Task: inverse folding
């Protein structure tokens, strides 16, 4: 009897039920994505890692993006040069690396490559330099 009532309710309110399912999925999506990538850091977490463990920030954006502003003391290594210059980073294999880009996509790709190359502590700055800036943290232009 109760199942029939539920079916009848859903049929009469299909638009509202669909809207509730879609909005619930949209609310859960960021949490589900973050769970898939446990190596992501918020700007606040990245700052703490930089201060406490002397993490190196590696910016993989293009030169023009870097010139507009970057995280202070970050090293610039464009993503398309990462494989050729991987040996330049070998001395940082045991040091925490925070990979940043504009929004987080390229950093994820770079992070996967670095982990595959044997880097132990690789983290991705969630939201990239955009999130850093939105958090009110400084950008350097030198």
Result:
């Amino acid at each position: 009897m109760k199942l029939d009532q539920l079916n009848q309710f859903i049929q009469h309110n299909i638009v509202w039920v669909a809207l509730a399912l879609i909005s619930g999925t949209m609310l859960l999506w960021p949490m589900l994505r973050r769970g898939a990538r446990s190596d992501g850091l918020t700007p606040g977490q990245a700052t703490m890692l930089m201060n406490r463990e002397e993490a190196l920030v590696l910016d993989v954006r293009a030169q023009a993006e870097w010139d507009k502003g970057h995280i202070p003391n970050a090293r610039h290594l464009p993503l398309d040069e990462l494989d050729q210059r991987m040996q330049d980073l070998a001395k940082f294999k045991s040091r925490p690396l925070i990979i940043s880009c504009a929004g987080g996509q390229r950093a994820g790709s770079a992070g996967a490559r670095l982990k595959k190359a044997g880097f132990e502590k690789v983290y991705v700055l969630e939201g990239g330099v955009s999130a850093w800036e939105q958090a009110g943290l400084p950008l350097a232009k030198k």
In short: The first strand starts at residue 40 and ends at 41. The longest helix spans residues 14-36. The chain has six helices and five strands. Residues 77 and 84 are 10 Å apart (CA to CA).
